Amino acid sequence: xxxxxxxxxGRFSVWGVTLETWDGRRIEADxxxxxxxxxxxxxxxxxxxxxxxxxxxYLVRGDRLTLGIEVTNRSDAILAEVTLSPMVTRFPSPPxxxxxxxxxxxxxxxxxxxxxxxxEGATLVCANEDVHRPLQVGWVGRESLAERPMIVATVSDxxxxxxxPRLRRPVAPGLSDRYEISLRFGPAGSDPxxxxxxxxxxxxxxxxxxxxxxxRRPIGALFLSTSELNAPTxxxxxxxxxxxxxxxxxxxxxxxxxxxxxxESSIEILAELGCQGMITWDIEGQEYPHAISYLGDPRSLPxxxxxxxxxxxxxxxxxxxxxxxxxRPQLPVRPPxxxxxxxxxxxxxxxxxxxxxxxxxERWGCTxxxxxxxxxxNVPLPASVFRELAAANPDVLLIPEHxxxxxxxxxxxxxxxxxxxxxxxxxSVRRMYPGAFSFLYxxxxxxxxxxxxxxxxxxxxxxxxxxxxxxxxxxxxVREAYGEDAR
Length: 487
Description:
It is a single chain. By secondary structure, the chain is α+β, with helices and mostly antiparallel strands. The protein is about 25% helix and about 30% strand. It has twelve helices and 25 strands. The protein has helices at about 160-165, 190-195, 195-205, 250-270, 305, 310-320, 350-365, 385-390, 415-420, 425-430, 450-460, 475-480; strands spanning about 5-10, 15-20, 25-30, 35-40, 45-50, 50-60, 65-75, 80-85, 90, 105, 115-120, 120-130, 135-140, 145-155, 175-185, 220, 275-280, 325, 330-335, 340-345, 370, 395-400, 415, 440-445, 465. Strands 1, 2, 3, 8, 9, 10, 13 and 14 form an eight-stranded antiparallel beta sheet that branches. It has a seven-stranded antiparallel beta sheet with strand order 4-5-6-7-15-12-11.
């Protein structure tokens, strides 16, 4: 392309095939019996083995090479995993942003696989033409940035415990599976999104937007406690006060008084900022160390909060503010003979989250739900979990801690400026979902270096999230973003 060769080695290779017998035994298939036939007229390669065959159709249209790969299982076992390398690609110059040994690949989990290689003379995109089914596609990691083998696989060597159950595409005896991969070329300076925009649109059509939430005013984040206090008379770290005594009936009365004073002060601050509501992260307190500090279950309140929570939430509701809490798709478990609590993954995360959301809606009228720990940051729970929750609860805003592009169709994912420097909804998401927005945590962050970007994020529809229990200097930026002109 553009006078440059992008092919280092065009030999199609089968790197590995795993079969599973009826009793669960795994067998590495024999690859030594390979017979290789290329039909020049049909532009089709056929690789035949004792267990089956792999065919690849090569189709060139304009500046695009499409590989139609079909794997057929002719054995008596299930074809459980396959790893292929269609070619070794040569790059005239090191692709922008690539690092030695780091792979460049996608898995089609929650977003279309569009892997760019931006070089000085041209832009190349490796893409999975199928936006529906999971598959590993891209380039493997190697020391060299000049040459990289392509990979197409139904198995991953990265985070296999998390990824492989979702990549699984078993092929029963006598059946076939098909993968369609493309290499798309564009002139130097081409935006990869322009080369693969049709796949982004196809993905959005496959995962249509479901969320309707017109109110984009700021939201106050309220933190009542800390997990670092370790105070005997304040074991849940309320108000970060090591000297407080909230034990016994007298202590519970003191707690209620402090809690309502906290609510009154926070309501005043939230009103000054024109907030639509608040989310209390730690309604159960933080008796346990991180990462279980936010228990995420409103049905498990300590005694001092159990008798005060209704009045607390009612105060915000009476002020015209939405209310919310933090929930988790895990279930708390107290191990026997141990004072601590651990979390276990709920076997049905939809049911677990639904029960917690329903409880908070019915008891306190909550409509804002931050969902903590929804899977690994790199491999969050399937977006279908939140799509089902959103469909059942159209009156609430779901805010997952981790996300894939598909999450934006039904939630407002958490973005963290204060700790991670993130600045609103990614452009790739906005291309797929023009109405998408994020829950952008400003918190304690210093906005001055990126003031304009934060203002633009809010004016573009993102919800800025501030500490709502004290007056912070960064509240000025929030007022600017939501000023009369912005509205």
